[in-house]
Specification:
Length: 124
């Protein structure tokens, strides 16, 4: 263990700023678990749609590499994904943007759709 230098003062009230933070309520924990569950169902549903035998991924890649004209869309797709990343990311690590929550809500919506399909039809 390293010795502490005389200039390194330890603040005795280091955690005093956290004294007013209350723990999550049981309802808040259940809501967070529900959000996480919906996102997981959405991820599984999308994965099943993308990777089945004649799935979406195979169709999209087939259309994209079908001709040189459609291959010109690859830089456009990369640019749009870069723009989305810039829009949803914040400049510094300490601040957050509300637009960063959009993918979570979209995945929850997709999860609700696949959960509804699972309940009504019995499969994804």
């Amino acid at each position: 263990m390293a010795k502490q230098k005389p200039n390194d003062k330890v603040d005795p009230n280091k955690y005093l700023k956290n004294k007013d933070i209350d723990p999550e309520s049981k309802l808040g924990v259940l809501a967070a678990m529900g959000r996480m569950g919906l996102m997981l169902v959405g991820i599984v549903g999308i994965a099943m749609e993308f990777f089945k035998d004649d799935g979406v991924l195979k169709k999209i890649l087939g259309k994209l590499f079908e001709s040189t004209t459609s291959m010109m869309m690859i830089p456009v797709i990369i640019f749009v994904l870069w723009l989305l990343n810039r829009w949803m990311s914040s400049g510094s690590k300490s601040e957050t943007k509300k637009s960063g929550d959009v993918p979570m809500y979209v995945m929850m919506l997709i999860g609700a759709y696949y959960l509804f399909r699972l309940i009504t039809t019995g499969s994804f």
